[in-house]
Structures are given as structure tokens and as C-alpha cells.
Design goal:
This protein is an all-alpha fold. The chain has eight helices and no strands.
Length: 144
């Protein structure tokens, strides 16, 4: 009867797509330049229609904005990453790359300096990729 026509909350939650699947779709959308569609998917993830986004989800979208030189939107995602406590070395590298793509080397240096000043967390995990992500655009800018 009528009680069979709807699913209870636990069944709905069990059917939500996992974040891993959503991230694969986000990655595909961004790689094809479909950043608006990726943003809509992220909104669905935020709404509870899927598992919630993680730091990697946000990095994918931020990188897509960076490739399109949409610094304002990328910066909003970076701010969300920071405010959510999701900044790790991968997120930092993605933000440095966005800054470089948008010609904002001072902004990249500022983010790098802030990460070095953190007492324990991120400062310990800075790696060679971080330095290469930061140094390459600086060398390129100097040689122009």
C-alpha cells in the first residue's frame, strides 16, 4: 500500500552515490572544461543528494576555475577549503597552480608563506611538488 511507495531515510542514504564516484565525474567534467556542470554537481553533493564533498572534490573544481582563469571563483573555493580545515599539501599545490595560471604570483607566495608559518600541520608536509609548483612560474616570470 501507501507505506511501500516511499523509502525510509536509511534506504535513501544507502543509495546516495559515494564521494569517490562523484569525484570521478567531477574530474571528467573539469577535464572537458565543463566547470559549470562540475559546480552543479558540487551543489548536489552539498545538498545531501550524494555523499558530501571532500577536499579533493573542492580541489578539482578550484583547478577547473584556474584553467579558465576564473580567479574569483577559484579563490572562493580556496577560502572554503581553508575554512573547512581541508587544506593539505595537495590543496596547497592546487591553489599555487591556480595562482600561477592566473598570473597572481604574489598571491601564490603569500599562500606558501602562510603554510610555512603553521605550527605543525601543513608545514611538515610541504614537498618537492610544492616548491616546483611555486618556483616554475617565478622563473618564467623573471625570464620574460
Amino acid at each position: 500500500g501507501a507505506t511501500q511507495s516511499y523509502l525510509d531515510a536509511s534506504e535513501v542514504a544507502a543509495q546516495r552515490p559515494p564521494v569517490r564516484v562523484c569525484n570521478a565525474v567531477l574530474s571528467a567534467l573539469v577535464s572537458f572544461g565543463e566547470v559549470e556542470a562540475a559546480n552543479k554537481l558540487l551543489s548536489l553533493m552539498d545538498s545531501g543528494a550524494t555523499e558530501p564533498p571532500n577536499g579533493y572534490s573542492l580541489c578539482l573544481l578550484m583547478g577547473g576555475y584556474g584553467r579558465q582563469r576564473r580567479l574569483r571563483e577559484a579563490a572562493a573555493v580556496w577560502r572554503r577549503l581553508r575554512e573547512s580545515g581541508l587544506v593539505d599539501v595537495v590543496a596547497l599545490n592546487a591553489w599555487l597552480q591556480v595562482c600561477a595560471q592566473c598570473g597572481q604570483l604574489a598571491m601564490a607566495l603569500q599562500a606558501f608563506q602562510q603554510s610555512k608559518e603553521q605550527p605543525l600541520g601543513l608545514n611538515r608536509t610541504l614537498d618537492m611538488v610544492t616548491f616546483a609548483t611555486l618556483i616554475r612560474p617565478l622563473v618564467d616570470a623573471r625570464s620574460d
